[in-house]
Structures are given as structure tokens and as C-alpha cells.
Write a structure and sequence with these properties.
The chain has 261 residues and is an alpha/beta fold. The chain has one domain (8-257): Rossmann fold, CATH 3.40.50. 40% of the residues lie in helices and 16% in strands. The chain has an 8-stranded mixed β-sheet with strand order 3-4-2-5-1-6-7-8, with helices on both faces. A hairpin with a 5-residue loop joins strand 3 (79-80) and strand 4. Helix 1 (21-34) packs across helix 11. The structure holds adenosine-5'-diphosphate and magnesium ion. Adenosine-5'-diphosphate (ADP) is lined by residues 14, 17-23, 50, 175-176, 201, 203-204, 207-208, 211, 226.
Length: 261
């Protein structure tokens, strides 16, 4: 029988480190899940993984490292986060880094085709082999930067890499926006990157508060300004109106309860 695989593989990359990739990956996963999607968040940052740390899931027996070392299959490395989405962690210990990698991520990830509506892939900083592997693993790519020239320059490099490899990014997310006059504007970034800006996530202390509590900010502080913007982006990815997803009508709520939509 011919089965259509509807899983969307989306990689979040940046070039520069520390601009918010892992924060976006975990929160986009949580937001898509809040909107009823089946989501797997995968930590493609093999050498310095952070996804499981941000989600408070650090003691897991089988990780992506075991899979890439040929010791387990990817389905064995899927864990449920208490908020309802699934996670494929990478190994945190230095011993994991010593495991001999025998498989490529882009190949291993086919094992879970059809297991979720969305697979969101976190990416290492830079443009080394590890980051390239994570970008190859996604069918879609979102670039994230802060509104500073050096971060945008690195994101441009990631864009150039993706173009050379036939991957077209759907757009750029500008994170930690304050609106101060030294920041690059949406127009500046669009001109520089030759890509649309699909989201501008504000600087928000609650992001840090949520990280300290090891929970996604969209889950812990759903009404804070960063959460609202991340949910708006999640709705955009689904192709739906954010407001109607946030405030479903009485009929829609009933249909959800009875599994009719
Ligand atoms: P990367 O994965 O790109 O290295 P992280 O997601 O780990 O970046 O984010 C780096 C740090 O930036 C976080 O630990 C958090 O303190 C901060 N951060 C990210 N996004 C925001 C935001 N919207 N508002 C405030 N702080 C943020
Ligand atoms: Mg990270």
C-alpha cells in the first residue's frame, strides 16, 4: 500500500551560537503541540547538546549518539516530555562524544518518517560538519539571528551554504528584539539576507525564567510576549490564524473534544 508521509522536517540554524536556536526549537515544539500537532524535537547539536537540559530530561538511557554509533534505532531514543511533545536527546556526557559515529543524521532520521506531524531539529553553531548534517536532515530550514550585524552576517553564511546545497530557507527569525535604535530593523535584515523575516521574538526575561525552571516558556508563561510571538510563528507554520487557534470557538472546542477536526 502507498502511504503518503506527511511529516515535516524543519531545521533551525543560525551560523552564530547563542542567538536562540535551542530556545526556539523547544518552544516551537511545545507551541505546535499546544495546537494539537504531534511533534518530535530532535537535538542535532551532537557535540554540545542542550535540548534535554532546557527540558529537564537529562537522565535518558538511549540517545541520538547511540543511534548514530549504530547501537540503537531512532525509535528507541524517543521520549515523551510531560507537556505532550516528544524528544530525541543527544548524549550529554563527554563519553558520548567519544563514540564512533557510523551513520549520518540525514539517513537515520528517515527511520521516524510518519511518526509525527513535525520533526524540529536543533543545529550546532558554525558551519562545520555537525551543523551541515542537521541542515541536510531537514526538508525545511528556518534561520535565526539576533538583530546585530555580526549575528546576521553569520546567518547569511548559513543561507549561502543552504543555497549551495539546494535547501531554500523559508525565512529568518529575529530573536531578542528590543526595538533600540542600534538594532538592525526588519527591512535591514530582509535586504541583507534576501529572505523574508517570518517572526520577531522580543527580548523577554520570562524566557530566562523558564530556562531556569527547565520548562518551555510557552508552557510556563503562555501569555508573555515571547510566548505569544512563538505561538504566532507556530500557527504560521500550520497555515492557521493564531487568534482562532488560541481562542477556538465553542463549536471547534466541541469538535476537538469529540476528535472531529
Ligand atoms: P543557541 O541554541 O543559539 O546557542 P540558546 O537558545 O541556548 O541559543 O539561547 C541562548 C540564551 O539566550 C538563552 O539561554 C537565554 O538566556 C537567551 N535568550 C534566548 N531567547 C531569548 C529571548 N527571546 N529573550 C531573552 N533571552 C533570550
Ligand atoms: Mg543551542
Amino acid at each position: 500500500m502507498f502511504i503518503i508521509n506527511m511529516t515535516r522536517y524543519i531545521t533551525i540554524a543560525s551560523g552564530k551560537g547563542g542567538v536562540g536556536k535551542t530556545t526556539l526549537v523547544t518552544n516551537l515544539g511545545a507551541a505546535l503541540n499546544q495546537f494539537g500537532k504531534n511533534v518530535i524535537v530532535l537535538d542535532g547539536n551532537i557535540s554540545t547538546p542542550n535540548v534535554s537540559v532546557l527540558l529537564g530530561m537529562t537522565k535518558l538511557p538511549i540517545t541520538l549518539h547511540d543511534v548514530l554509533a549504530g547501537k540503537a534505532n531512532l525509535k528507541q531514543a524517543i521520549y515523551m516530555h510531560p507537556s505532550g511533545f516528544k524528544v530525541i536527546p543527544a548524549g550529554l556526557s563527554i563519553h558520548h562524544s567519544k563514540l564512533k559515529i557510523k551513520r549520518e543524521l540525514a539517513e537515520a532520521i528517515n527511520e521516524i518518517a510518519g511518526e509525527a506531524d513535525f520533526i524540529i531539529i536543533d543545529c550546532a553553531a558554525g558551519l562545520g560538519n555537525e551543523a551541515k548534517q542537521a541542515m541536510y536532515a531537514g526538508d525545511e530550514l528556518i534561520l535565526i539571528t539576533t538583530p546585530e550585524i555580526h549575528a546576521v552576517t553569520d546567518a547569511l553564511k548559513a543561507h549561502e551554504f543552504s543555497k549551495d546545497n539546494g535547501i531554500k530557507p523559508m525565512g529568518v527569525v529575529i530573536n531578542r528584539v528590543t526595538g533600540k535604535d542600534w538594532e538592525m530593523t526588519k527591512n535591514n535584515v530582509e535586504e541583507f539576507m534576501e529572505l523574508p523575516v517570518i517572526s520577531m521574538i522580543p527580548e523577554d526575561e520570562n524566557v530566562k525564567r523558564a530556562i531556569a525552571k527547565k520548562k518551555p516558556v510557552v508552557y510556563l508563561y503562555p501569555k508573555t510576549k515571547a510566548s505569544k510571538e512563538i505561538k504566532r510563528l507556530a500557527a504560521k507554520l500550520i497555515g492557521e490564524d493564531y487568534r482562532s487557534l488560541e481562542n477556538p470557538s465553542f463549536i471547534e472546542r466541541l469538535m476537538t473534544i469529540f476528535g472531529l477536526n
